[in-house]
Amino acid sequence: MTTVRLTSLAERDLEAISDYVAQHNADAATRLIADLSRAVSSLAEAPMRQRVRTEYGGRGRRRLNRRGYAIIYVYDPGEDVVDVERILHGRRNIVPLLIP
Asked: What is the CATH number of domain 3-98?
């Protein structure tokens, strides 16, 4: 089965999302993080189900949307590994956050 890894940026994104939502509703933050974590884990089952997003810098990045958030990831079929690079609110201007 495909290995799914979170980058340190993706881990920080999850922490920031949790902190922000918890300011308003701690239970909702717990549910949201659990749902996003399940979505990330689901990438192991079908990592190529989303199309490559060339507008994200040409590294083969893909985007999985879940509950208003964009899970940005790269799948390496040779290694059978998914690297989740970022988890960002879907209304943000994502491109500048991915392309330095």
From this structure: 3.30.2310.20
Q: Is 77 exposed, middle or buried (0-12, 13-18, 19+ CB in 10 A)?
A: exposed
d(CA 37, CA 40): 5
What DSSP state is assigned to residue 55?
G
Give domain limits for the chain.
3-98
| pLDDT tens digits for range 56-79 | 987 899 999 999 999 999 999 999
- The tens digit of pLDDT for each residue in 20-65 reads 999 999 999 999 999 999 999 999 999 999 999 999 987 899 999 9
Write the CA distances from 4 to 7, 20, 74, integer angstroms. 10, 25, 10
DSSP 8-state symbol, 56: G
